[in-house]
Every structure is written in structure tokens, then in C-alpha cells.
Amino acid sequence: MTFDPPDHTESPNGQPLAPGLYLVATPIGNLEDITLRALRVLRSVDKIACEDTRQTQKLLNHFDIRTPTVSYHMHNEAGRAVELATALKSGARIAVVSDAGTPGIADPGGQIAAAAIAAGVPVFPIPGANAAISALIASGLAGTALVSSDDNPEQFTFHGFLPSKEGQRRTALEGLKTRVPQVSILRPGNDAAGIQIFYETPHRILATLADIESIFGATQHVVVARELTKLHEEFLRGAVSEVRATLAARATVRGEIVLLFVPAAAVTASDTAPASIAAEVRELMKSQSLSEKDALKQIARAHNIGKSEAYRELQRERGK
Ligand code: SAM
User: Fold this and answer.
1) pTM score, whole prediction
2) What is the pLDDT of residues 94-108, one digit of tens each?
């Protein structure tokens, strides 16, 4: 790992920034979480495209940045992307910021990046705060998402927001459960459920926790990360029934929320029993050149069943 000095994108000697698109992360609560590089870029670009110009203006005022702003939000993203791409093609330096955090992550930014790339314009990520990653690293879940010893314990899936309609939300959550039996050692590290990360609103969090409880059981471990980096930052970690009761006991649930959990079904034998052990044994012996014994051992571990149980099931299938 090496650290480079400020490069051509940062006008260290008073040189103008390189032309291009700068996707600039801004704080998710704590103003100190803006980087030195982000400040320099925001000061030096020709224009800042903002999800909400009034929101960004507060940030710019705080840091005494006078760069002109233009709106760039989900309702004008497509049209504005064309306009900005035209300016970029003629050599403009444009920054994109969202209201908070990293642009393009559950926020506008993706379309303009794609348009700039299609137009042959350089795109520079200016990294910084992000709610999902901040919640993940302090969740305590990394390392608990093992299904088999081959899995990457840090594997996670970021979903953004769950659907707001109850039926669609339940279907999305149930999808996590039904995907679990496909967690197959035939494709190690591929489909493993791992840590599931969602953005959630304060007025929906109780309903979502109720859904998780009914789908994955009352003891399903969850983490609710609230108001990250802010004065009232809070982590609630525990059984979904307890976390839900804690929040339900409050007069109101406020603030911004990230919800994380490793679906319990991933580690229960009944849910992860393979459809056909014989087929998995055959496949593993072929794809990984394992002996039958070693293949069975892996299958037992992956599906959280005993070796002898796996062997008995294999014999039973063969006797059919
Ligand atoms: N682009 C942002 C990022 O990089 O994290 C996310 C924008 S998304 C529109 C807003 C959602 O992110 C919030 O509803 C909440 O779920 C989550 N979020 C943003 N800031 C947060 C914070 N300080 N604490 C917890 N969650 C936060």
C-alpha cells in the first residue's frame, strides 16, 4: 500500500483541475467526514451538480465554497445527464454530489457517470462517507456469515431500500430465504447469503422488522444502525423480536437507518438440506476432483448436517 501525493486531478500548484466528471462523497451527518480532496475538488470545479441545491449550499457555505451549483436529481437525471455530458465533452470540470454520502449509491450519479464514460470523458471517484459501509464495519456481523469454510466471511449484499409496499417487501425478504438452499458448495462463495444490508426509513422500520421476524423467526439476529456519525448515533444489535420491542417502546422512531442481518436460514439444517446429495457429490467430484468421501464432507459442512446423515441420505437416494 502506498500513498500518493495529490495528483493532476487536484490542482496542487494552482493548476486547473483536469477536465472530467468528479463524483464527490459528502458527509452523512458529521461535517468532519468530508475529505481534504473533496473540498479541493468542490472549490476548483466549474460547476457542482447537486441532488438538492439548497441542501448542498449549506455544506458549501460551511466550508466557504463559492462554486456555482445546478440541480441534478432523480426527476431530471436523464435530461441533465445529456446536458452535462455535452459540457464535459467540451472540457468542463463538473462535480456531482448527492444530499449526503456517496453519489450513485441509492442516489443520483450513475447515469451521468455512464454518459460521461460513453462520451469518452474521464470520471474521477472522490471517495468518502457512505452509510451502508459505515454500518457494516461496526455491525459486528463480518465473520459471522459463514455457511461453509470456503465462504468469504465478509461477503455482503447491498440492497438499497426495500420496496415500500408490504407485499413486495415480504416477497423481497422471502427471496433471501429461498435463495439460501441454493447456497451450494458447487459454486463456493457465489450465492452464499452473507450479510444483507438495507436502507430503511424510520416510519417503516417496525413493519420491516415484523416481516423479518415472521419470515426468519423471532431469534433472527439483526443490527439497526441509526443516525451514523451524528450526535445520537445508535447501534441496536440482537434478536429481531428484542430490537423491534426496543424501538416499538419509543414514542417515535426517528433518524436515518441502515438495517443488516445474516439470514438465519443460512445456517439451519432444515432450510439448507440439499435437493439431491447424489447430484452434488457427482458435481463436486467432477468440478473439484474430490473423492466421494471429501465431497460428502464438504456437503455436510455446507448444509450444516452430520457426515453420517449426509452418507445415509446418499445411500437412500441411490437405493431409490
Ligand atoms: N448515498 C448515500 C450513502 O452513500 O450512504 C445514501 C443515500 S439514501 C437516499 C439515504 C438513506 O441512507 C437513508 O434513508 C438511510 O437509510 C441511509 N443513511 C444515510 N445517512 C445515514 C446515517 N447517517 N445513518 C444511518 N443511515 C443513513
Assistant:
1) 0.79
2) 999 999 999 999 999
- Please report how many Cα atoms fall inside a 13 Å half-sphere around the Cα of residue 38, on the Cβ side: 24
Q: What confidence score (pLDDT) does residue 1 get?
A: 67
- What is the CA(258)–ligand 1 centre distance, in A? 7
Average pLDDT over residues 21-30: 98
Q: Which regions of the chain carry the CATH code 3.30.950.10?
A: 132-261
* Cα–Cα distance, 178 to 195 (Å, whole number): 15
Q: What residue ranges line ligand 1, CB within 6 angstroms? A: 28-29, 98, 100-102, 105-107, 130-132, 199-201, 225-230, 256-258
Q: Which of 24, 107, 199, 235 most suits a substitution to test ligand 1, by most atoms within 8 Å of the C-beta?
A: 199
CATH of 20-129, one of 3.40.1830.10, 3.40.1010.10, 3.60.130.10, 3.30.1490.20: 3.40.1010.10
Note the CATH number of domain 132-261.
3.30.950.10
Closest protein CA for atom 13 of ligand 1: 256
Every domain range in the chain assigned CATH 3.40.1010.10: 20-129
- Taking the centre of ligand 1 as the mean of its atom positions, its distance from the CA of residue 101, in whole angstroms, is 7
- For ligand 1, the distance from its centroid to the CA atom of residue 209, given in whole angstroms, is 18
Q: Is the pLDDT assigned to residue 271 strictly greater than 60?
A: no
pLDDT, position 269:
39
Strand pairing class (195-200; 156-161): parallel
Interhelix angle for 307-319 vs 292-302, to 10°? 110
Phi-psi category of residue 14: left, alpha or beta, with phi > 0 → left and psi -120 to 50 → alpha? left
